[in-house]
Amino acid sequence: MTITTDLDHWADRIRSGDVRSISRAITAVENNSPESEPILRSLFPHTGKAHLAGITGAPGTGKSTLVDRLAAHYRKQNESVGIIAVDPSSPFTGGAILGDRIRMQGHATDSGIFIRSMATRGFLGGLSRATADAALVLEAAGKDRLLIETVGVGQDEVDIMRLADCTLVVLVPGLGDEVQALKAGIMEIADIFVLNKADREGADRFEQQLKAMLSLSPERDGWRPPVLRTVATESKGIAELAKTMDAYRDHLDRTGQRQARKIANWKQRLLDLLEARLMNRIVTNGIGEQGLESLAAEIAARKKDPYAAVTDLLARAGIC
Amino acid sequence: MTITTDLDHWADRIRSGDVRSISRAITAVENNSPESEPILRSLFPHTGKAHLAGITGAPGTGKSTLVDRLAAHYRKQNESVGIIAVDPSSPFTGGAILGDRIRMQGHATDSGIFIRSMATRGFLGGLSRATADAALVLEAAGKDRLLIETVGVGQDEVDIMRLADCTLVVLVPGLGDEVQALKAGIMEIADIFVLNKADREGADRFEQQLKAMLSLSPERDGWRPPVLRTVATESKGIAELAKTMDAYRDHLDRTGQRQARKIANWKQRLLDLLEARLMNRIVTNGIGEQGLESLAAEIAARKKDPYAAVTDLLARAGIC
């Protein structure tokens, strides 16, 4: 009874935009703590309305400044903004190495912007799950625009970008081998290319190369990713970019793709949840980490084969 | 009866090193076809003896040539070699974009070398699982040395490198922003750094920078990753590299870390197998892809919450 009341109170405070309540909920989903499921369940009916943009690109492309200026643009239009900055880090230590959020301090007194950094966790699928859940919290908190910023195009980043209604890939002229970055899978996740630092030397040539490359790839569901030039540090090109993002949203709505994407995304998240639930049952509340370790040792010593071990595990958990 | 006999025959032919039988088994594990589990089970007791090296680095670092020359070095010592080249590709289309294996044709008539390219598949965890299983096939086929080559340091690559007894990270002077590559998680997966194309301008300076950076990070379990210079195209530095790899293996054996790594690795693979088995039961043979899609649509429309949906799914599969 008290728990339900507390939960309702917490959910109400999140929905009213209370910063501390929002933070506490995001911490809960980050840590996958026991209170995360009840609070998400309680918030869930109030989600699904925000526009979610993903912004990715290599370090040094000025993504953070771009996100900052986009946020300022939306605030001027009186839309509230939630920003999730996913920091890259070593897959083994989990320590964030990027993450200078000082740039954001210009917004510190504006309650219409909520900013949160999330660091990579060591467990597979964990980061995109946590990011997706954090986005749900911010949606329930009534944010109109969510901006999710990630670095690079690893599997984690790709998973995170699947959440987005619109994915921006930020490039700059003259930073390493751009063509290579494009080869590495970035071409196909971009809905819009942002050529930032477009006042730099080589910007024209790079834009031409990029457009030439894009002209070779087929139109995707009636949309060919445009290339937009920005100089984020001077807020140049930001309004045009925001306009193009809205045009893309309209395109997705008109063609029914936005809905199709949401469904595909929930399908994947359903599988992730299912997996988490089962692993919790079989491992955490079943054989235990220690038991699993012993079993792995037997397999490593070739005393048992892994397929027989899995059958045993299922039988122990009463699943056969 | 016939099936068992066929399976035994197939396994025997793999163990005798028959190229077509090995290829067929790797294709089976790549496709996760029904015959993959029986053949792996049958081969499993004959695995666990090969030395497995992982070789990773950005495109253009000369990894493939390095692998080629390492293989030639081992062949001279009369050791048999299996090479798995994991090709990068778009996470969405699954089409390999690298993969010029022509360089390997010099070994085409040597039955002591088996070479196989594997392309990225679209499903999460799938590539490392398939690579691990392919490595088991090659171990059972009696290969003394396995060389697994991957590009980049995404989650897939990191998962693959976890398989290895020794991970080489290949760098070259003057290719993009090396320091950035190091930041992106590569520092901690490297057991040995290979500075290839070491006859290039800037190699000395780059080596100094790299060593300076390494001197700042703590020794890891009694090993500080050394930097070895090679010019793979001229076979320079290959013997020294192979010697250092063996020294690292001895270090792991002496300190018990090799065994600990194998156990940690099997623990993860056991979880992967468990997940695959359960998903097969709940989705493929349960609600079906179509049913899952309908459920996801209800969630996207906020008619059902995802947590209740998971509970329903488990109940339907008789797991409660």
Summarize the structure.
Chain A has 320 residues and is α/β, with parallel strands linked by helices.
Observed structural traits:
homodimer, 320 residues, alpha/beta, Rossmann fold, 2 domains, seven-stranded parallel β-sheet, 13% strand
Question: Can you describe this structure?
Answer:
The structure is a homodimer of 320-residue chains. In chain A, helix 7 links the parallel strand 5 and strand 6. The relative contact order of chain A is 0.11. About 4% of the residues of chain A have low confidence. The first copy, chain A, is built from eleven helices and seven strands. The first copy, chain A, has a seven-stranded parallel beta sheet, sandwiched between helices. The first copy, chain A, folds into two domains: 207 residues, Rossmann fold; 48 residues, no CATH class. Helix content of chain A is 52%, strand content 13%. The first copy, chain A, has 320 residues and is α/β, with parallel strands linked by helices. The longest helix of chain A is centred in the C-terminal third of the chain and has 44 residues. Chains A and B meet through helix 3, helix 6, helix 7, helix 10 and helix 11 of A and helix 3, helix 6, helix 7, helix 10 and helix 11 of B.
